[in-house]
UniProtKB/TrEMBL annotation:
Phylogenetic lineage: Bacteria, Pseudomonadati, Pseudomonadota, Alphaproteobacteria, Hyphomicrobiales
Positions of the EAL domain: 24-272
Name of the molecule in the record: EAL domain-containing protein
UniProt superkingdom: Bacteria
Amino acid sequence: EAKRAGRGRYRMFEPGMDELLHRRREMEIDLRRALALKQFEVHYQPFLDLASDTCIGFEALLRWKHPVKGNIPPLDFISLAEENGLIVKIGEWVLRTACKEAASWPGDLIVAVNVSPLQFKADTLLETVASALEKAGLPAHRLEIEITEGALLDDTDNVLDTLAALRDLGVKISMDDFGTGYSSLSYLQKFPFSKIKIDRSFVANANADSEAILRAVAGLGTSLGMAITAEGVETLEQLARIRGERCTHVQGYLTGRPMAPDQIATFLAQSNREWKGEPE
Ligand code: C2E
Ligand code: MG
Ligand code: MG
Ligand code: MG
């Protein structure tokens, strides 16, 4: 009796683990083919300058259109791509695609590209960026590289050297998801970022602690000469709050969702609309 019950429990547990490993292996096989099969796309989310209320650029966000599973969000496959190293090739494709597409945008619009810590470790980032800019004919000042605190965790000296070399090319460097990692403040001292993007959790939570952190980071960044983007602004009330906190830029569903490249012209033509409104 006991043996059967025990075996039953074991058998109920085991398929779960198998299933997970199996799905993971399957996803890895699919991921390895995704580039060659052209299943990736880059979508673009606008960010606005709060002083002029105009769109000044777009963040490139990777999209995977899986033929069977449909759209797989980046959070579901990027960590896997980091574990198996595929992110280096995929990240290079994103950089080249984003630079090429941005070169067709009007004026001086910026394209911001997320770069994984592993791309720094691969030691080819500088070359890749320089070549992507050149092939696309995009001036360096129109490219912004977004890094997270994770990039500065180990091998910091090499990463700082690469960041400095990128900056010398004329590329902007921003610190993404600020406030979610470890010992965040010390990173601001290590490198003169052009921009800090305050993680959307501090925007979404309207409690006293989040507001105090938002205010402190915006104040500190401003006095260090950095631009401050509030991420994930979804409501007019949040927009009004961040305007009061010395944020210089805003990015969120309120001012524009990520869009396919062919939607950008229409978006720009209709710009300067509802987000100018303040809550009654
Ligand atoms: P991220 O770099 O912080 O990008 C912003 C994410 O927040 C995007 O999610 C965007 O769609 C989402 N977002 C923007 N505004 C709002 C809002 O108002 N509300 C909410 N709830 N969400 C909002 P997405 O596209 O799913 O990307 C998630 C993360 O995946 C990115 O976070 C970035 O860390 C990573 N990622 C995306 N594309 C790439 C890439 O090409 N390379 C690398 N290494 N990472 C990427
Ligand atoms: Mg980002
Ligand atoms: Mg972010
Ligand atoms: Mg994020």
